[in-house]
Amino acid sequence: MKNSSIFKALIAGVITLACSFSQAQMRVEISGVGSNQIPIAVAAFANEELSPQLVSTIIRDDLNRSGYFRLIEVGAAISETATIDFESWKARGATALVVGSVQKKGEGRFDVRYKLFDVLKNEMLSGFSMDTPNPKIRLTAHKIADDIYEKLTGIPGVFSTRIAYVTKAGNQYRLEISDADGEGVQVALTSKEPIISPIWSPDGMKVAYVSMELKKPIVYIQNLMTGQRSTVANFKGNNSSPSWSPDGNKLLVTLSKGAIAQIYSINADGSDAQRLSNSNGIDTEGRYSPDGRYIYFVSDRGGNPQIYRMNADGNDVKRITFKGTYNISPRISPDGNTLVFISRRDGGDYVYAMDLANSNQELKLSDTKSDESPSFAPNGRYVLYATQTGRRGTLGIVSTDAKVKQKLTIQAGEIREPTWGPFMK
C-alpha cells in the first residue's frame, strides 16, 4: 500500500495572497453521447455582438459538452419577443428552441434575456432576464444553459459551477480555479513544490489543502476571495487528506502524531481534534456521506487497501469493497446512493462506480489506465478525475452511465488533483 498515491509525498509551497488570472488555457475534447439525445435549436441572441462574448455560443458549447443534446442548425438570430413558428421547428426536427437578446444598459452592463420553448407542446417552458456586468457574461450564459438542462432533463445543470485542480509547468505548481468548462482560470496558490489534496468547502468559498512549506505536511484552509489562509492541522508527524463535513464546520484529516496514520475529525478553526478510526493498519482518505451519518475511508487493516464505512462517531466499521485487491479514494454521490472509487484491475487503475444498495452492481466508468482523485459533480451526473495521456497528467470527465467522456488538457504542462466545486447560492 505504500506505493499508493495516498501515501505519496504530501508537499505544497508558498501561497499567493489573492487570486490572479492565469494565461494557461484548457482544451476540452468530447467523445460519446448520452442516451436519448434531445434535439434542440439554440438561436443566436439578437444584438449579442454588443457584448464581449457571444451568449448563444457559450450555451451551445455547454449543451454539446454535456452529451445529452443534439444541436440543430438555426441560422439567423431570434429575439425572445419574436413570434415562434412551432410547425416550422417541428419540421426541422427540434423538440426545444432557445431564443434571446442582449441589450446594452450602460457602461459595462448588459440585460441578457432568454426564453426556452417546448416545440412539441407549442408553449414556453422557461425564461428570465439578468442584469449582467461585463465580466459576468460567461456566468450568465452558463446559468441559462443550467436552466435549459434542468427543464429538459429534470436534473440541475452544472455549467455555472467551478472546478479546482493543480497544474505543473517546469518547476512551478499552481492551484487553479476555473469554470466547469475550463475557462475563466484564476490562480489561487503557487509553489515550487507539489500541491496535494485540494478540496472545496460546502459553501464554495474556501479550499482546504496540504502544504509542506515548513518541511512537514500541514493542512491549511484558504479563502478564495481574499487569499487569507489559516492552519487546520499541524501536529507531529503526518497531516493529510482533508475533507469537509456537510455543514462546513469540521474536517476529516489523517494524522499520524508520530505513530500509524488514523482518521480524526477537527474543527475548521483547528481546534478539538478527535480520533475516529482505531486499527493496527493505515486508515486514511476519510469522506463524510452527504447526510453526515457515515464516514467512508481507506484502510489496509485486512492486508490490502480497501474501502470501509463507519458511523460518524467511529463506531460500527464495515468493509464496503470486496472485488479486487486494491481499492482507494472513496467518493459518495450527492444523493448518497453511489460510491465512486479507484480500483486496480486488469493492469490499470480505473474509476469504478458501485450501487451502495447492491455492492454486486459495479460499473467501470473510465477507459484510461492511470486514474486518480475522482470527484462528483454537484448534480451527481458526472465524475471528474485525474489520469494520464501518454506521460502527461490530464483530467477526465465521465458521465455516471459511462456514455459521455471528456478530456481536459493544458497546452504546456500537466494537470492533476481535481475537485469539483458545489452549487453556489
Automatic annotation (TrEMBL):
Keywords: Cell cycle, Cell division, Periplasm, Signal. The Tol-Pal system is composed of five core proteins: the inner membrane proteins TolA, TolQ and TolR, the periplasmic protein TolB and the outer membrane protein Pal. They form a network linking the inner and outer membranes and the peptidoglycan layer. InterPro entries: 6-blade_b-propeller_TolB-like, Tol-Pal_TolB, TolB_N, WD40. Residues 1-24 form the signal peptide. This is Tol-Pal system protein TolB. Part of the Tol-Pal system, which plays a role in outer membrane invagination during cell division and is important for maintaining outer membrane integrity. Transmembrane segments: none annotated. Residues 27-124 form the TolB N-terminal domain. It is found in: Periplasm. The keyword Cell division applies. It comes from the Bacteria. Its main location: periplasm. It comes from Undibacterium amnicola. Belongs to the TolB family.
